[in-house]
Amino acid sequence: MRTYVFAALIGASLLLPSFARAADAVAAPTLLSPSKPAFDRILSVAAYGLGWAGAYAGGGGGGRIALVPHRWFGLDLFGEAVFVPNPGGLRHDHPVGFDLFVPIRLGERVRLRPLAGMCVVFSLIEPDRKDGPRSDDVLFGLQAGTGVDVALVDEVSLFTDLKAIGYLGHDRAALGWTGSVGDGYRTFGLGQATLGLTVHLPL
């Protein structure tokens, strides 16, 4: 009986390294196989800085979630915070909206994105004086433009977007103890430039 046990132990000690080498050989292709390229991934998140020029200037930042369910269709959902110089108090605008885009591959690592979309902007003016009246407004916007993505690695890409934006809102004034929001609507035209980084999730 002891002989059989001894023989079994010797056999196991000889076979275990072989099993380990076989397991490594099977696992190696999985561990070393190339990951999915950035633009083949369906879901991504991004952060960016932005600037406005046109009817008024401004600067700030934003974030977005992008979904590309088809090779010729994508959707961006974004939220932004922009500070706008204003003599009567601190103005900060908060656009929230979406863009539809067409992802056009120009190679493995470069992609063009013609885009168009809509947004709502919560535009707030904090008066200089503590008890001064506010001049807040909600603007509605349409935007169109194009973006360029450059994949740095499989998980990260650099991007820049240029948009033309038309807003519908009210004339406003805020100075000292006075503040007003006009009754009629008017349009405002802006250009927006963005620069940021996208993280492409493994989906």
Q: Could you explain how this protein is built, in words?
A:
This protein is α+β, with helices and mostly antiparallel strands. It has two domains: 33 residues; 162 residues, Porin, CATH 2.40.160.20. 15% of the residues lie in helices and 63% in strands. The chain has an eight-stranded antiparallel barrel with strand order 1-2-3-4-6-7-8-9. The longest helix has 31 residues.
* Spans where pLDDT lies below 50 across 5 or more residues: 1-33, 173-180
| C-alpha Rg (nearest Å) | 28 Å
**What is the beta-strand fraction?**
over 45%
Described by strand count, sense and barrel closure, the largest sheet is:
8 strands, antiparallel, barrel
Structure annotation, total helices = 1
Tell me the number of strands. 9
CATH topology of the largest domain: Porin
List the helices and strands and how they pair.
Blueprint: H1 2-32, E1 43-54, E2 58-70, E3 73-84, E4 89-101, E5 104-105, E6 110-127, E7 137-151, E8 156-175, E9 178-200
Antiparallel strand pairs: 1-2, 1-9, 2-3, 3-4, 4-6, 5-6, 6-7, 7-8, 8-9
